[in-house]
Design a protein that fits this description.
The chain is mainly alpha-helical and 167 residues long. It has 8 helices and 3 strands; from the N terminus they run αααβααβαβαα. A 3-stranded parallel β-sheet has the order 1-2-3, with helices on one face. The longest helix is centred in the middle third of the chain and has 15 residues.
C-alpha cells in the first residue's frame, strides 16, 4: 500500500484501502454514519486458511443486513495452480457459508497475481456464471487490471497481487 507513499504509515493508510473508500462512499450515498467497515483481508492465504478466517472473523459477527465482500483466489490460481473452474467452486463454498448469515454478497475476482493474466478470460466467464447462478453481485477486478495488459496493472498495484494507494 505504501509504494510511492513511504511517508504514510500503515495505520494511517488504512483509510485509503478500497474497502474503507467503499464504506465512505456508501455513507455519503445513503447519508448513514452507522455504516462500519471491518477489513479482514490477509495476504498470502489459500482456501483452507480463508475458510477458517471467514468463519472466525466474518461469520461469527455477520448479520442479515451486513454486506460481505469476498476477494479471493490469486494465490490459489497463481502459485497454487488452481484453474478458474476450481476458483469458482471455492467461491461457491465461501458463498454458501456466507448465505447462512446474509444474502448481501459481493464477489470480486483477483488482481493479476503471477498466473492470473493468462487465465483472465476464463476468470471473467466463471465470475459471470457464478453471479448469475448465485444471485449475488460481482466486480471483475481481473478484467479491470488486464484491459490494457499486465503493464497497465502496475499503475494500480504495489506488486503482482496487492493494490497500492492508487489501486
Amino acid at each position: 500500500i505504501n509504494r510511492g507513499n513511504y511517508d504514510i504509515h500503515e495505520k494511517d493508510a488504512m483509510q485509503f484501502l478500497y474497502c474503507n473508500q467503499f464504506g465512505r462512499l456508501l455513507k455519503e450515498h445513503f447519508g448513514d454514519d452507522r455504516i462500519t467497515v471491518l477489513p479482514k483481508g490477509v495476504a498470502g492465504q489459500r482456501l483452507p486458511e480463508a475458510l477458517k478466517r471467514l468463519d472466525h472473523d466474518v461469520l461469527s459477527i455477520a448479520g442479515p443486513d451486513d454486506l460481505v465482500i469476498i476477494e479471493f483466489g490469486a494465490n490459489d490460481m497463481g502459485w497454487g495452480g488452481d484453474t478458474p473452474q476450481q476458483w469458482r467452486d471455492h467461491l461457491r463454498t465461501m458463498i454458501d457459508r456466507v448465505k447462512t448469515k446474509t444474502d448481501q454478497i459481493l464477489v470480486m475476482s483477483p488482481t493479476t497475481g503471477d498466473k492470473v493474466p493468462e487465465k483472465a478470460v476464463q476468470i471473467t466467464a466463471m465470475l459471470r456464471q457464478l453471479v448469475k447462478e448465485e444471485h449475488i453481485a460481482g466486480a471483475d477486478i481481473t478484467r479491470l487490471c488486464m484491459y490494457r495488459g499486465p503493464a497497465f496493472a502496475w499503475s494500480l498495484l504495489a506488486n503482482d497481487y496487492h493494490p497500492d494507494l492508487m489501486g
